[in-house]
Amino acid sequence: MTFLVGRLLTYAITATAGSGFLLFGYDQGVMSSLLTGDAFVAIFPEIDTTKSGHGSSSLQGTVVAIYEIGCFLGAILSLFFGERLGRRKCILAGCAILSIGAALQASAYSIPHLIVGRIIAGVGNGLNTSTIPVWHSELSKAASRGKGLAIELAINIFGVMLSYWVDYGMSYVKNEAQFRFPLALQILFAILTFFGVLCLPESPRWLIKHGHESKARQIIWSLQHNAREIEVDDPVVNVDVTEITRAVEEEEEASSGGSFRLLFQNNKQRFLYRTLLGMGGQLMQQISGINLITYYATVIFEQSVGMSHHTALLLAGFNGIAYFFSSLVPIWTIERLGRRKLMMFAVIGQGCCMAILAGTVWDGGRAAGLVATVMLFLFNFFFGVGLLAIPWLLPAEYSPLAIRTRSAAMATATNWICTFLVVEITPVSIANIGYKTYIYFAIFNFCFLPLIFFFYPETRNLTLEQIDRLFTGEKVQLHWDSSMGIAGDVDTRVGNATTKDLENVQAQHIE
User: Fold this and answer.
1) Does the model's pTM come out above 0.70?
2) How many whole angstroms separate alpha carbon 166 and alpha carbon 209?
3) Please, which domain of life does this record's source organism belong to (predicted)?
C-alpha cells in the first residue's frame, strides 16, 4: 500500500484493527437479546428459559459458551502456526473462518447446527483476537501504541452496542429474520476486516525476524509521520531497524531457536514471568464478571431485576451506549495515567459494583431494582476505563519478539477459556443461587488489586525494545528509571536532533 504513508497509514491500520474488534464485540453481544426473542425460542425451545418456556438453563449456557471453546481452539491454532504464517495471514484466515461460522448460525434450524456454527465462528475469532493486537502494536509508535489499542477496543464496544440495538430493532420483526439477520450481519464486518488487512503491511518486527529486512525497512519508513520528506535510509529509519535487529539477535540467543518450552522458562529475559503476566491480565478481565453482563444483559434485567422483555431490551441498548462512551476514556488517559493506575481504578470500582448488586438483587424491591440497574451501568463504566483495552495490550507489550505470537496466543486462550467458564455457569448460577452469583465476582475483583500493584510493570511511552529492559535486570522494574535512558521512540528521544546526532544514536546501538 505504497500510496498510503505517514499518519494516513497509521489511521488505516487502526481502523482495520478496530473493524476486527468491532466484529469481536458484535458477536459477543448479539446473542444476549436473541435468547429471549419470540422467533428464536420458537425455533429453539430447548433453550427457552423465559417464564413461559421449559428450556434448560444449562443447555442455554452451553450453546452460548461453546463459542468460547471455538475461540480457545483458534487461539491454540495461532499458538502453533501463527509465527510461521505471519500476522496478516492469520487475520485473513480468521475472517474467512468466522464468515463460514456466521453463515451456519444464521441458517440454523437445530441446536447441533447452531452449536457447530458457533464453534467455527469462534475459531475464526480466536485467530483474530490472538493476532490483531500483536499486529497493531508492532506497527505502532510507542507514544501512540496504548491510544491506538484503546481506540481499537472502543470500536469493539461499539460492536457490542450495535448488536444490542440491531437486536432491539429486529425484535419488532415477527418472523425468523428477527434472529437470522443479526447473526448474518457479522459477515459484513469480517469482509471489511479481510480486505483492510489485505491492503496493509505486515509487521516489520516479524519481517526482520524472518530475514526480510528490506521489506521491513520500507514499512518502517512508511510509518514515519514525515515519510514523504525523508528517504528509506534516513537515520531515524536506520535506528529503528537497528534496535529491532539487535532485539531479535538477543532474544534468539536467549531462546536457542524459539522452542515452545521457552514460554515456560525463566531465563535471563524472564519469558515465563512475562507470559504469565499476559495470561493473568486476560484472566482478570474475564472473571471480573464483565461477560456476565455482556452476554446476559437482557436475561439479568428480566430475571434478576424483574423487568419486562421490552424494557429489558431497551435498557440493554442504553447500557451498550454507556459502555461505548466509557470505553472512549482510555483513549485520552492510557498514555497520561498509564496502565497500572487505570487497572487498579477499575478493579476497585468493579468490586464495589458487584457487592452492591448482590445486595440489591437479594432485596428484590422496586427501589433496589433501580439501584441494581445503575450498578450494571457503573460496572461497565469502570471496566471500560481500566480493564477493557489494557489486558489485550499487555501480552503484545510484555512479550519479547522471540515468543510474542505464542505468548499472545496463550493469553488469548486464557481469555477464552475463562470466558467460557463465566458464560457457561451464569444461567445456572442465577437460577440456583441468585444474588450470591454477584458476591464471588466482587471477591475476585478485590483480589486483583494487590496482583496489579506488586507484579505489573508500567509500560507507558516505552518502545517494545525498551520494555524488554524492564525484565532483564537483577529484578523486574515496575517503572522506567531515568538512569536507564530517555523513554520513547527515536524521534521522541532525540527531539530536534541533527542527522549527525541520529547517526551517533545508531552507532551506540551497533556497538
Assistant:
1) yes
2) 44
3) Eukaryota
Q: Which domains does the chain have, with CATH numbers?
A: 6-208+258-455 (1.20.1250.20)
- Angle at the Cα of 68 from the Cα atoms of 67 and 74, rounded to 5 degrees: 95
Among all chains, which residue has been given the C-alpha cell 545508531?
506
Task: Write out the three cell numbers for 320.
Answer: 451498550
- 38-59 residues labelled b (16+ CB within 10 A) or e (exposed): ebbbebbeebbbbeeeebbbeb
**Running along the chain, 511 residues long, what does each successive block of 10 average in pLDDT?**
77 92 85 80 83 77 85 91 91 96 94 94 93 90 82 87 87 89 94 94 91 91 88 88 84 62 78 93 92 69 72 82 90 91 96 90 74 86 92 88 84 88 79 84 95 94 87 87 75 49 47 43
Contact 99, 190 (CB under 8 A): yes
Q: How far lies 232's CA from each of 134, 222, 244, 504, in Å? A: 24, 8, 16, 18
Q: How far apart are CA 318 and CA 372, in angstroms?
A: 15
